[in-house]
Specification:
800 residues; mainly beta; Immunoglobulin-like; 6 domains; 10-stranded antiparallel β-sheet; 5-stranded antiparallel β-sheet
Length: 800
């Protein structure tokens, strides 16, 4: 359905037209007190009774009327609530400007004494009812003219909330709504076609495609003589207000027309409201189409349109065939499918920096819900950014903020969960009225961590760094989270340090992703003012943990050492390079990016060794200062030729003794060598009592002994098992303890990482022992939680 009526938002407006110096200047004052009157309509009328110029008095009652010709004129004043007043004749010569100090307004009109008989002015012309109707109509035209003249003042600016709504067929339920805040100057809420066009074609036009364009009368149409000639008027009354109802004359019954009421306040005679609907249209269109306007008078006398709304139906046309006496005929059925509403409200009127009028503050009501569970979030802090307006949600997640003006805002939401990781949820909103409830859906901290932390493992350490004895945050402090991992390197298990680091923001906050869960962590903070260290752990079922660090000068005596190791040929990073400080018994290995870091280094000069098999060893003396981080980049050169490396079989006397006792199951090097092309899990799976759980290429050793009993669920606590990868995880099982070269990799304790044995190359294995239960397990490997079996792996070792 086409809608051409509302161009933009209501108001006032502006621009006085430049005129020649010829005209009349003066001031309108109260007759008894000589008080200047603002907002009075002043007309310049020629000798034939035609209005040649119009003006609206300013705050000082002053006006100026310009004209283009010499002649005799009168000044006519129209004031709301008063009868018109006309001055004595004024003779203007060519180029002359007449200045008259005072013009007096007319006598009061008492509308509260008007009696309403309900007869149309089209039927009665010369009785008291017609006179009363004419008096009321004159007050309405005065207000409409003042609104027109207010639209010529460019020193006023306004903020307007416009909206577009889609309603259901009954016009009750809002299906869709769009609101927009605009500021500036605009001439009127809508601009109609000319009064002459409306007289010829009516207020609605049906196009060839059966769509309908509706026209609404603007101020020019309402004050025109043609509108008065085309409509019949009668007085109507309600408590506290008096109105003129209008409807089209009989001569216009064949044209789409409007019928409605203009309402005035009985006590002040001020125009308050216009409401109208469309007539002479199909029933379904008449039932839904219409519009309304509300008027506002500023203390300075200007008139504005404070609210407007126009609604049009969306018509659905269906064709059907119906049988009749003359045969089958085509039937057209039309119905209202929905209603479109365009409208707006004046929110604020200013003149330069002064506020002339503001809509009374409203209350913003809303609810904060968890985006996953849709449950209300308790104790969330809701703030309108840029204001001092703030509220906390109750146990149902609801909040109310009073004193909010219509406008566009950014809503900042801090939930207890999000505050823990230093995240604020912000969302834009256009606040237009107190109707309805604003719904804000926010994610939990766990969901934020999983979406923000894309690197593996998925875990976050978040917190804040402060200085001891100082409430100010420690900005730009370095924060490092370190942990140890076990890696299979050069035929043996090695402990490697892994870390992530960042700097604090202006609020002293930090967030670090890529931290493993259920692993012992060391969190360090360091700045020129001091340092701090604390231990932490992300719980197995959680996605993050908090760390609050307080920098102290005493905590800043140690130094740190970090950097990168690259190839001197192509500048590519080299992994698994060992960097050792022998005098301190400290060493680390570079990660896949060639990065390394060593913490807690005492101040002083220490010897550094950088080495990796196949590369030339580097030696250097480095000086470390307290509370400082030393950064270096090392370039390693490959060794051109290496001596022959011989791998010899290991002598495993204890393995042989255990095999002679016959309590477990054993695989020798010869047994393994026959199936060396297979993964280790496939080889171990051949042993009696072994159950292999898989996830892709990964293999985990469990015991058949625990299946079908309470062992798997009670002793190993399946819901809390930890694997070296994310979901989907293997199902609950009774997972065996694992030793590699007499070092315990997995002891069956809650939260330990179950190792993937396929990461161990079969070519590096010398022998395997497997014991199905505690009764078979030798004392050397006998521990608590051994009821799910014990797997012992012996590797072949190089003499290097």
């Amino acid at each position: 359905m086409a809608l051409r009526s509302f161009v933009s938002a209501c108001l006032l407006l502006l621009l006085s037209r430049a005129s020649s110096a010829q005209g009349v200047r003066g001031t309108v004052v109260e007759g008894g007190t000589l008080t200047p009157l603002s907002g009075v309509v002043v007309l310049l009328v020629d000798s034939a009774g035609n209005t040649v110029a119009r003006a609206l008095t300013d705050e000082g009652g002053a006006f100026r009327l310009g004209t283009v010709g010499a002649g005799t004129y009168r000044v006519r004043t129209l004031r709301i609530g008063y009868r018109p007043s006309t001055s004595a004749p004024i003779v203007l010569a060519a180029g002359q400007e007449v200045v008259q100090p005072a013009f007096f307004a007319g006598a009061p009109v008492l509308l509260d004494t008007v009696r309403v008989r309900g007869r149309s002015a089209c039927q009665v012309r010369n009785d008291d009812s017609a006179a009363a109707t004419f008096a009321v109509w004159e007050q309405i035209r005065t207000a409409l003219t003042a609104a027109q003249l207010s639209a010529t003042h460019r020193n006023l600016s306004a903020t307007v909330v416009t909206h577009q709504r889609s309603l259901d067929a009954d016009g009750r339920r809002v299906l869709q709504q769009y609101s927009r805040i605009s500021s500036g100057i605009t001439a009127r809420p809508w601009r109609s076609v000319s009064p002459d066009s409306l007289r010829r074609t009516g207020y609605a036009v049906t196009e060839i495609d059966e769509s309908t364009t509706y026209f609404a009368p603007d101020l020019d149409v309402l004050v025109s003589d043609g509108f008065a000639e085309d409509h019949c008027f009668r007085l109507v009354s309600e408590t506290g207000r008096l109105g003129i109802a209008f409807e089209p004359t009989r001569a216009r019954r064949q044209l789409p027309e409007i019928r409605g009421t203009l309402w005035l306040d009985r006590a002040s005679s001020e125009l308050r409201r216009l409401e109208f609907g469309y007539v002479n249209l199909p029933r379904e269109q008449e039932s839904a189409a219409g519009a309304e306007l509300e008027f506002l008078r500023l203390p300075q006398g200007a008139w504005l349109i404070s609210h407007w709304s126009i609604r049009v139906p969306v018509i659905e046309t269906r064709y059907a065939e119906a049988a009749g006496y003359t045969g089958v005929r085509r039937v057209v059925r039309r119905s209202v499918r929905g209603i479109k509403v365009d409208g707006g409200d004046l929110a604020l009127v200013t003149r330069r920096r002064d506020t002339l009028w503001a809509r009374p503050p409203l209350t913003l009501a809303g609810v904060v819900r968890d985006s996953a569970s849709d449950a209300g979030v308790f104790a969330a802090r809701v703030t309108l950014r840029g204001t001092a307006l703030v509220a906390r949600t109750d146990s149902t997640g609801r909040f109310r903020i009073a004193g909010v003006l219509p406008g566009e805002y950014l809503l900042d939401i801090d939930t207890p969960s999000l505050e823990a990781i230093g995240v604020t949820r912000s969302m834009p909103m256009a606040f237009t009225d107190s109707a309805g409830e604003f719904i804000a859906r926010v994610p939990s901290a766990d969901h934020v961590v999983e979406s923000v932390c894309t690197e593996k493992p998925v875990g976050m350490v978040a917190g804040r760094v402060t200085m001891q004895g100082d409430s100010a945050p420690a900005r730009n402090a370095t924060v490092i989270v370190e942990w140890n991992v076990f890696a299979w390197v050069a035929s043996e298990i090695q402990s490697r340090v892994r870390w992530v680091d960042t700097t604090t923001d202006a609020r002293g906050r930090f967030r670090l992703c890529g931290v493993p869960r259920n692993t012992a962590l060391t969190v360090r903070a360091q700045s020129d003012a001091g340092a701090a260290t604390l231990g932490a752990r992300i719980a197995l079922e959680a996605a993050f943990t908090q760390a609050e660090l307080v920098l102290t000068p005493a905590g800043g005596r140690a130094a740190a050492f970090s950097g990168v190791v690259l190839s001197d040929v192509n500048g590519q990073p080299i992994a698994d390079v060992e960097l050792a400080l022998p005098s301190l018994a400290k060493n680390v290995y570079t990660n896949e990016n060639g990065d390394f870091r060593i913490s807690e280094i005492p101040p002083g000069t220490h010897q550094l060794v950088v080495r990796r098999l196949g590369y030339r060893q580097l030696n250097a003396a480095l000086t470390f200062e307290a509370n400082r981080n030393v950064e270096r980049r090392f370039l390693l050169s490959r060794i051109v030729a290496l001596d022959t490396i011989t791998v010899t079989a290991r002598n495993l006397p204890e393995f042989e003794r255990n095999r002679e006792m016959g309590l477990g199951h054993f695989l020798t090097r010869q047994d393994i060598q026959k199936q060396e092309e297979r993964e280790l899990a496939d080889i171990v799976a051949q042993l009696p009592g072994v159950l292999v759980r898989r996830n892709g290429s990964r293999g985990y050793i469990a015991s058949l002994r625990g299946m079908g009993t309470s062992i798997a669920t009670e002793s190993n606590r399946c819901p809390k098992l930890r694997f070296e990868f994310r979901a989907p995880t293997p199902p609950c099982a009774c997972y065996a303890q694992v030793y590699v070269d007499e070092a315990l990799l997995y002891g069956g304790l809650e939260g330990e990482t179950i190792p993937d044995i396929n990461t161990i190359p079969t070519s590096s294995i010398a022998a395997i022992e497997y014991y199905a239960g505690p009764a078979q397990t030798p004392v050397r490997y006998s521990r608590l939680n051994a009821q799910c079996g014990v797997l012992v792996i012996h590797t072949r070792r190089s003499p290097l």
